[in-house]
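Ligand: MGD. Inputs:
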Amino acid sequence: MATSHQTFCRNCTHSCGLVVTVDEGRVTEVKPDRAHPITEGYFCIKALANAELHGGADGRLVHSVKRAADGTFAAVDAFAAIDEAGDRLRAIVAEHGPRAVGIYMGTGGYFNSLVQPLAKSWLHEVGSPNFMTSSTVDQSAGWVAMMRMGFVASGKPNPAEVDALMIVGANPLVSHWLPAFNPSKRLREWGKRGQKTIVVDPRRSETARMADLHLQLRPGEDVTLFAGMIRLLLERGWHDRAFCTRYVGGVDTLARAVAPYTPDYVAARAGVAAELVEEAVRVFATSGKSLVITGTGICMAPRSNLAMHLATALNVLCGGLRRPGDVVDNPGVMMPRTFTDAVVPPQRPWATGIQCHGVPTGRIYGEIPTGALPDEILTPGPDKIRALIVLGGNPVKALGQPEKTLRAFRSLDLLVSVDVRLNDTARLADYVVAAALPMERHDVPYIFDGLSWASTPFAQYAAPLVPPPPGVVDETLFFWALARRMGLSLEYRKIGLSMSYADAPPGHALDMTRPPDPEQFARLWLEGSAVDFDALKASPGGIVPTLPEQRVAAAPDDGARLDLCPADVTDELAAALADRPDPARPYRLTTRRLLETMNSAYRDAAPAARRWPANPAFMHPDDMAAEALAAGDRIEVASRHGSLTAEVRDDPGVRRGMIAMAHCWGETDAAHDPGQRRGAFTGRLISLDDDVEPINRMPVQTGFAVSIARAADRVPA
Ligand SMILES: Nc1nc2c(c(=O)[nH]1)N[C@H]1C(S)=C(S)[C@@H](COP(=O)(O)OP(=O)(O)OC[C@H]3O[C@@H](n4cnc5c(=O)[nH]c(N)nc54)[C@H](O)[C@@H]3O)O[C@H]1N2
Ligand SMILES: Nc1nc2c(c(=O)[nH]1)N[C@H]1C(S)=C(S)[C@@H](COP(=O)(O)OP(=O)(O)OC[C@H]3O[C@@H](n4cnc5c(=O)[nH]c(N)nc54)[C@H](O)[C@@H]3O)O[C@H]1N2
Ligand code: SF4
Ligand SMILES: [Mo]
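Predicted complex:
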């Protein structure tokens, strides 16, 4: 008999409420949950793609596999694979020490809230500092900005309550990355109540089309634009002086450093008219409460750490932070917090803590930057990484420079992938352990707990709705079984996003003699929460608890101030002035997301397969005319480092002089699809040696120079 169940989607931060129909142990239908207090019946097509995956389509892995010497895979019992991997890991640690081992956790790991604490406990017990995640190839420029500048512990206001919202290099209407659940509806509502939105994006994105002002800058010129905006803001005196006096230092130094970024210079270089820049700064600074939010567009461009520093500085100069007395709508339910306006001064953990051995940097938020991973593997030395566990990720696709990345991964003594698909990285692994899918496991939507944009306090518990196929393991059991085999004892600590194990409060030692019931991890996660696990379990649609009103408390002024312009930022601003366009490569490649895919996932599910047989190269129609190209023509796109072939698609929304393409498509190893008919891998165009940021090793994935030429053949319409 078919039954229906309330649960939530595990594809992205939105965690949309779903109603899932189950018949004879199978997911037969997925609908949005209209009764869900947060997402109110909103969902997107990837929820349906996920149902397909549960049905066994889209390459779902239903048993674990082991690679033979000839490179072929054979099915293997999951726990036998874990035991073999455990033995090899123990031998590697015995011979080379704990730093020979690492974990890379990708988005598939992030969206299983219960596994992260176990993964971190396992690595801690091994004794290795090598925890890496997709965050450092995502928006870790924000981390660098926070640490070079310091931060105010009050946090950012909720976008819902501000009068001027600037969205930089993010397209929430497609990506659902900030600033609200059901973004188009919310942006419309906020607009009706008078909020002004400014979008900074070289593309007239879905979000830009809803904005009051769209600064359609030349890709990769966020530094120029934000330096220019800060110069203008300070010159006009539109900044929040009272706020700056209390919280901010370095304003004059920053003013001097941005002095060369005159309106004319900015207009010429960033390609935005001086009047429009001025209007944006005026609206942003003088409408009332303001807030800058950022996405991947600014964090993947050249000089991304500097760009994020300046965008953050603009926000701070306009007082875009919570003040003492402000009500915090959602202080967190599962991980409740308190808020003060204390200034946490700059700190540079990458300079003082454990250092990478292959590149000159260290850890940030307790993580080794993923951009350093190929060097950590390839560079000889006692601290070289020799064994890697990849948890729900596809780093060879996420990083780029396939020649180097593939060489590094192939040289590992041991690679274990824990995934639901045989992705590009898994295909290089010695063991691929088939993981349970969301509807087969326990979960809580911790990822947005207490985020400023999730204004309603909320918690939900997802119970397993269908049994996993016999060959599949729950990821929590993967780490438990691996630890047991290696003779390690795990401890379950409640670890928030980007929190290092060492900083987490002590937790519970696990019984290593009997396999745990994974439900216990959900129960442990709810310890210390504002809601009780059993109550949550009894309310599968989730609970909106009534929390005591919390306001930001005023901390005593201890003299600490944010540093808006440390010496390296001054140097970077000066260096940026010397950047010159590359006459041989007149276009700039930019990254963008497609609704139907999630990074490298869902390309083979029906929604994407129907609409995107490959990832097109989007170009402005006038550029196409100038190049004598028609839609469907194939072009070769070449950077300083590599080239790819893609089909041209006209898009009047992209700026002239740019090519917009989605990432994580195509084959990592070009030999597998020489014609690139199934998509082009943009990572082929980048370098992990030359075009990486210092500190977080962020590779430049957008806004870099390319040339285009007609490719030899044309695809029939
Ligand atoms: N050029 C370019 N490069 C980029 C980006 C870009 O915009 N442009 N974006 C960057 C960003 S923001 C990111 S986050 C990275 C993405 O980097 P990754 O996270 O490394 O890559 P994904 O493709 O998201 O890999 C997710 C994997 O998780 C698996 N998965 C899904 N559900 C589950 C599950 O329940 N359990 C397990 N174990 N696995 C599961 C999927 O099958 C998939 O293989 O790429 C980065 N690279
Ligand atoms: N459908 C779908 N949803 C996703 C994902 C997915 O792959 N598909 N990935 C998930 C992940 S891992 C993440 S991190 C989030 C990311 O969420 P977002 O950051 O919102 O990602 P995008 O939708 O790619 O939006 C980035 C925007 O930056 C613009 N841009 C490109 N280059 C530049 C530049 O140089 N400067 C500026 N200012 N803008 C630029 C692009 O045109 C694009 O509109 O999305 C998540 N959600
Ligand atoms: S993938 Fe779509 S349905 Fe799932 S949480 Fe994200 S926005 Fe919601
Ligand atoms: Mo991401």
